[in-house]
Write a structure and sequence with these properties.
The chain has a three-stranded parallel beta sheet with strand order 3-4-5. The chain is globular, with a radius of gyration of 23 Å. It is mainly alpha-helical.
């Protein structure tokens, strides 16, 4: 409607349309919507904790607060929005009785689930307690990848995202959050385009991507916490610059020939899509040198002592993927972006943060960045477990 009004009422509407869908505006609008649902969910959980002794005791014993539970839950829902965008949820059987391939699932799985529940096509008393929780902690952690309650396939993801927050007793503690809360969340999220691709240029796609989750997290921190504990969102261009410089210095210091410093600088300027890379690369590096650079990037270990919402590790991963893919094309290594990302997440990155919610968002962004490159239609690999690599703690 907004676009149509601009087209009808303006002789030259292109600039107005661009402004209407600018990244910052969409980011701000998404955050305001997200914050509203976060506050409503936290308020509802506070009510349940106050009025239910079993929930109160379980949460107290497991050191769970209403606000942290809300952040985790909203993160899980957002993750499912990305998964359903890939068609990974609710894979049905074909007319021959065999399950269809991954990617064929409903792109509106959550809304469909809620509609079937409200229309009593699915027997359940409470949407969260009887449907969402079992999907989180049963279906998505089932190696058989079959969920009998809905007679469909759901991927086995593991990885730590879909496990009960602080190991609360989800099977025996009934958390009957009002259905209306989720209806409103779905109505809002359905208005946005969820994409797993974080843009690397300063011009960005107008959509909800993992980077926006970092901004959302930063904005949800109480103001006094941000000022007192030093938690601030780092602009993308600053993150990109620092990551590039860190990797350049790592490679330069690791290569015995210091005259290669200028050539390393050139390597970072190459475009992955440029077909002239091959001839040019062999003018400045030998095959042996390129192999060594690739090995250095493969074996790199990185620790972020204040990882926050994960902006630096995600950008470092992007830089390493681009470099190794360029080298792979020249040396015919036949790497895939997925395999490089998976190696980075499993073997290269470590991080610590004071805030447990930041840890959850950092893991979420790394996992989301990986699943965009999972191309298999036959078998989806479980997510890497980051529980002992990205930790809550005080680096100082």
């Amino acid at each position: 409607t907004q676009v149509l009004n601009l087209l009808i009422n303006n002789k030259n509407p292109l600039e107005d349309i661009k402004n209407a869908f600018s990244l910052e505006r969409v980011t701000d609008e998404f955050f305001e919507d997200y914050k509203k649902h976060y506050l409503n969910l936290t308020k509802e959980l506070d009510r349940l904790i106050k009025n239910n002794e079993k929930i109160k005791n379980d949460f107290k014993q497991k050191n769970i607060t209403a606000d942290n539970f809300s952040k985790k839950l909203l993160g899980q829902i957002v993750f499912l929005y990305f998964l359903q965008k890939k068609g990974w949820l609710g894979i049905k059987k074909n007319e021959n009785g065999n399950f269809q391939k991954w990617g064929s699932g409903s792109k509106t799985f959550l809304q469909d689930l809620y509609n079937n529940y409200k229309n009593k096509k699915i027997k359940a008393k409470n949407f969260f307690n009887d449907l969402l929780e079992p999907i989180f902690y049963d279906a998505l952690n089932n190696e058989e990848e079959y969920y009998d309650k809905l007679d469909c396939k759901i991927p086995f993801l593991n990885g730590g995202l879909f496990k009960p927050f602080n190991e609360y007793n989800w099977t025996e503690t009934e958390i009957n959050i009002k259905d209306k809360i989720f209806e409103e969340i779905f109505n809002t999220f359905n208005q946005y385009n969820f994409t797993v691709q974080e843009e690397q240029n300063f011009d960005a796609d107008v959509a909800v991507d993992p980077e926006m989750l970092g901004k959302v997290f930063e904005n949800l921190l109480p103001e006094n916490f941000k000022k007192g504990k030093g938690s601030f969102y780092t602009p993308r261009e600053v993150v990109t610059y620092i990551c590039k410089q860190s990797l350049k210095n790592y490679l330069i210091s690791s290569l015995s020939d210091r005259t290669k410093e200028e050539n390393i600088e050139t390597l970072f300027q190459l475009n992955l899509q440029d077909e002239t890379n091959e001839n040019y690369l062999f003018e400045i590096f030998s095959e042996e040198e390129l192999t060594k650079i690739d090995k250095l990037l493969h074996n790199i270990k990185i620790c972020d002592p204040s990882i926050g919402s994960g902006a630096f590790p995600v950008q470092l991963m992007t830089e390493i993927v681009d470099l190794r893919m360029i080298i792979s094309e020249q040396l015919n290594f036949n790497y895939s972006e997925y395999s490089i990302k998976r190696n980075f997440i499993e073997n290269s990155i470590y991080g610590v943060d004071l805030d447990s919610s930041a840890i959850e968002i950092a893991k979420l962004r790394l996992w989301l960045s990986l699943i965009i490159d999972e191309k298999s239609f036959e078998k989806i690999e479980p997510l890497p477990n980051l529980d002992y690599k990205i930790l809550q703690g005080n680096s100082l």
